[in-house]
Design brief:
The complex is a heterodimer of chains A (139) and B (324).
Chain A (H helix, E strand, L loop, with lengths): L7 E4 L11 E4 L7 E2 L2 H4 L5 E2 L4 E5 L2 E9 L4 E7 L11 E9 L1 E7 L8 H5 L2 H9 L8
Parallel strand pairs in A: 1-8, 2-9
Antiparallel strand pairs in A: 4-5, 5-6, 6-9, 7-8
Chain B lengths: L14 H4 L13 E7 L14 E6 L6 E6 L6 E9 L3 E4 L2 E3 L4 E6 L2 H15 L6 H4 L15 H6 L4 E6 L2 E6 L1 H21 L24 H12 L5 H10 L17 E4 L1 H4 L7 H10 L6 H9 L7 H5 L8
Parallel strand pairs in B: 1-7
Antiparallel strand pairs in B: 2-3, 3-4, 4-7, 4-10, 5-6, 8-9
Helix pairs in contact in B: 5-6, 5-7
Classes of the chains: A mainly beta (139), B alpha+beta (324).
Amino acid sequence: MSESSSPIRLDLSSLREAPQDVLHLLPCEVEHNGSAPVARYFTPAIRQGSQEKSVSFRGRSLKGQEVIVPQGYVGLVLKEDQRPCTEEEERTVRLKSTFGTLTVWNLERAPSADDGLLLALSWPGIAEAIHAPVSRKEQ
Amino acid sequence: MRRPRRAAPRARGSRTMLGSGRRRPADSHADQWVLVAPEPVTDLPMKPDGGPLFTRLRNPSTGEAALYLFNSSAQQLFEVKAFHEEYRSWFIGQTVQHDGRLLFATPVDPLFLVLFYLIKAEKEKGKFQPLDQVVVDSEFSSCTMLLQCARVMDSLHHVIEEKEIGNKKFYKYSQEKTLTWLKKKVNQTVKVLKSSNVCVGGRVQSATFISGKQITDVKEDDYVRYAHGLISEYIPEDLSAELSKYLQLPELTSPEADPPLKKRKFSDAPVEAEEDYTKFNSSDLKNKKTTSKMSAAQKALAKVDKTGMKTMSAFFSAKTKATK
């Protein structure tokens, strides 16, 4: 078993100051990690329709829906600033920002209720049922 | 340069949209993750250097490595699953993140993970043993943390026979007790499924979230079978088969093919398939090129899936219209 599988500590010390971020899940791959002027080019192009949001992105029409993080849950963006040079050192990720909603974008057609991500957001509720201790009255 | 087979737009690093236009190699380490986690995960630790801990443990169904998360006090355990579709990236604030995955941390009953070791010990030795001799694993040393969960000790009696000699307690797996416990798990899952509008029937339905659109011809058996499928993701295959008998689930006359899991998946695969679960990108490249090749998790699921029961992955997988 390689040492790269060592545990990773989540550093919560920045929890109070952590900013809220606006998240958009795009229907395409962007082969880049780093800064992007989202507020300059993307956000101003978003139109809120009666049912859905729409935006033109690189000449393509995207339809989006804003979804809320399930009740009792929080959205966290975690960042590993520096990977330890040696594999013996404990790895740490810090809380970079939080989010309460995110917007899922599809090509042409707005995400519907049976879209993967929207279904996945119901998983926490099901998981709670499976993993709750068996109730006293049934014991 | 990989091109999507479907007409998804490609956005490369460009000066207008993405700043410098410099691209990082696709196989560089992902160093940022988007996670949805229960609020208690953010409870501050008692000690300043403490905090929740991501660690690998054995998936109690497959025995393979999977990613889990202990909260700060190490009293609650969560499993980490990745929701992932092809051709997804994130805008996060004023940044772009290539890895379009959404990780979910959801509660997991740590007793399932302990049960894996109890069953293993029963097969190997078949005798009463102290728990700290049962839950040991040279590959997954974090497994001993499971025994520090108060909840494990409180609920252990559901799955074991116990003997006390002197002041020491000795334990042995009891399949009979375990089946009784699992049936209660099935029952409580059925209850939530019924109130959640989740489509448990054989037919693929849409709009499962629209209330009042309950499907009327769903039988009790469908719920039980579905719950059995969900719980089977946390127990070894043999035990899943025993549980099916114990629940007296009728054989399906025409086992339905599960919807393909390829395009959209919500499974252990992205997290556990790699030795290093941060190497998300490289595994995706592989999966994309050979979509017919199943991941380890999918193979494991395919094994469990023999009776045509629904599984968690089927629950989250794409409807046929969305797959190719």
